[in-house]
Design goal:
There is one protein chain. It contains six helices and seven strands; from the N terminus they run E-H-E-H-E-E-H-E-E-H-E-H-H. By secondary structure, it is α/β, with parallel strands linked by helices. The chain has one domain: Maf protein. Helix 3 packs across helix 4. The two termini are about 25 Å apart.
Length: about 210
Amino acid sequence: MKPLDRKIYLASKSPRRRELLRQIGVDFELLMLRTEGPRGPDVSEEVFAGEDPLVYVARVSNEKAAFAWNIALQRRLTPRPVLTADTTVTIDGEILGKPANQDEAEAMLARLSGRTHQVLTSVAVHFHDVAEQITQVSQVRFAKLSPEAIRTYCMTPEPYDKAGGYGIQGLAAMFVEHIDGSHSGIMGLPLFETAQLLRRTAPACITT
């Protein structure tokens, strides 16, 4: 008897999402989407004018999952659920993307200093005619940060590939005064919600 295929495809470049999936025992293969190059990204992360952050993050995660599922079909890969995620940071209703340079990173952190912001992570799964998505929202409060602390942090590589200009799993953990929500969601993959989604859409791929 052929063993049951319990793997999923993870369409994400994030090493943190790989670590988090392994933490809950989900086996996966990477199915990479193009994020740059002459033809541009496979899925644009541009924010539409007036787009609500919750709508934006859900839309992008769903578009990534749909595109990756179509890639799997085109390449005639073994049919498996495709999981993607997208994370964004928002404050005052405005989306903070990934800073392009040190000035942008410092400006973002100065804005977050001493205040509460929201981290939204949307997880999507596409598999045959199944397309589901779930979004987790965490409230994160930063302590008041000195200009020196901000500048020192922004001289490290950490802020520049992360929404909002910081990574909670790294040096920026010392900025966080309080969290109401999901620590793993702030890292980029809310494990409770991800497990729920996989139990509904791909129960063979999650064993606990």
